[in-house]
Amino acid sequence: MANIELVNYIKAPISMVYQVLTTEEGLAQIWTKKLRVKPQVGFINEFDFNEPELTKMKIITLEKNRKIVWKCIESDKEWIGTMVSFELSEQGNKTTVVLSHTDWRAVTEYYKWCNYNWAMFLQRLRNYCEETTVNQ
Known about the structure:
With about 140 residues, this protein is an alpha+beta fold. It has one domain: START domain (Alpha-D-Glucose-1,6-Bisphosphate, Chain A, domain 4). The protein has 3 helices and 7 strands. It has helices at about 15-20, 25-30, 110-135, and strands spanning about 1-10, 35, 45, 55-65, 65-75, 85-90, 95-105. Strands 1-7-6-5-4-3-2 form a 7-stranded antiparallel β-sheet, covered by helices on one side. The radius of gyration is 14 Å and the shape is globular. The termini are far apart.
């Protein structure tokens, strides 16, 4: 099995980064505006990317300001059964975000495209959190 593993450093409080990754308001700023999200273990987040199918992620783990784990239960066939996690840590005025998208069955063209898009996701997360922090 293949995994995507990425890291980014954000000059914003860990609580802000966690909130962006776990709420409709936050994820709508960095991923898609068409979504249904609730920060509750067992809840099935829904993301609409104007594709034939919705992406549905079941929340497996929520450790406030530390860890978020989703399991993909509906989406593109290559995503179904994969896990997405965000591990957060804070040192000084920086929050480290480690994003892992694990349990891919194969390294395909779609896997490579998703790898690129997860990197862009982390960049949007960083930009949004840092701009919001500056403007507060």
